[in-house]
Amino acid sequence: MDNVPIGVRELEILTLSAGVYSSGINFSALRAMHDWTVETLSKRPAQMQDVNSCTDEYTYAVVSIVGSSAALAEYLPDGGEIERASKAFERVVGRKIRGIVALNLSGENALLAVQAAAVLDVPVVDGDGCGRVFPLLEQTLFTLGGITAGPFVLAMPGEETITVDVAHERTEAFARFCVAAAGGWGIFFGYAMTGQQLKATTVSGSMSGLLELSGDRLPTRSRSKPRTICRGTISALEYPGHMSPHALDGIAFPSDAVSILLREEGGRSRLIRLEAHNDIFFALADGIPIATTPDQLLLVDENYRVVDIDRLVLGLRVEFVVIDAPPAWHTETGRSLAGLGSPLILQTPERSRA
């Protein structure tokens, strides 16, 4: 559907639902982005556009928050970041922006896409570039479709704006370096695309899917229904630091690693080990692999709300669930981009029911 308005009422739903597919949200940053977006939408609602109606006559820009969510909560926007970023981006690509796409729909990014569309008076595309959440700007379905992020623009609070043109695989590294020198966070405009490129790479319908949810609970009926792997109690939390599988793959991620141990309740009473780095990326049961990124691996509480991995405590009863990622992430190139290298063969009852 085209021209679906997203106003303050829809924003409230989106603010709750944006935590569904993320295992780590800074709620202070989300509230700051919410308040900023309410101010914008109270003047003019955004309009949501179906991916299939995007045309090649137009140029679409991908937006994302870069840097630390904690920094966003402490160093509030000056209000001009979106306009500064968009104008600089239009100068560098030589075309007007006619639509906005979210890099992913986790937390602040979902709200930012709506706000940017309203500020610029262009549609926000009903979709996103990941279908789940990855920590790096280059870990997208756009990348898998051969589209590069640069040249891209970063706008930081304090009226600082910078245009960057680097090798695609260095996008996150350079962006993070720039925002670290300017307060810790910024707004990213990149991945200039045509309508045809969007149709070939974007996960269609993901934003309207969030708007159909009743809050911050996982959907029980959706295109990708969560699969319950087990229920259990957190028995240990370990912090191995730099010695995580992702770090050993040569990828620099912006947070520390943690190992989560669950004691399964009922059934086989297995010991479940979850490895997390920004989000949960690998799971074993009694030493046997049972789930892995690129599927989204989540812990939910007894109310079926996603648990922030930074807020886990010993003794918490949780459910371990998996949401299947878009098929492109399960190709050899998709798994490599996700930081996994060669595919793992998971011959388990849980996987066979996928």
UniProtKB/TrEMBL annotation:
<feature type="domain" description="S-Me-THD-like C-terminal">
    <location>
        <begin position="169"/>
        <end position="339"/>
    </location>
</feature>
<dbReference type="Pfam" id="PF20906">
    <property type="entry name" value="S-Me-THD_C"/>
</dbReference>
<feature type="domain" description="S-Me-THD N-terminal">
    <location>
        <begin position="40"/>
        <end position="164"/>
    </location>
</feature>
<dbReference type="InterPro" id="IPR048350">
    <property type="entry name" value="S-Me-THD-like_C"/>
</dbReference>
<dbReference type="Pfam" id="PF06032">
    <property type="entry name" value="S-Me-THD_N"/>
</dbReference>
<dbReference type="InterPro" id="IPR027479">
    <property type="entry name" value="S-Me-THD_N_sf"/>
</dbReference>
<dbReference type="InterPro" id="IPR010318">
    <property type="entry name" value="S-Me-THD_N"/>
</dbReference>
<protein>
    <submittedName>
        <fullName>DUF917 family protein</fullName>
    </submittedName>
</protein>
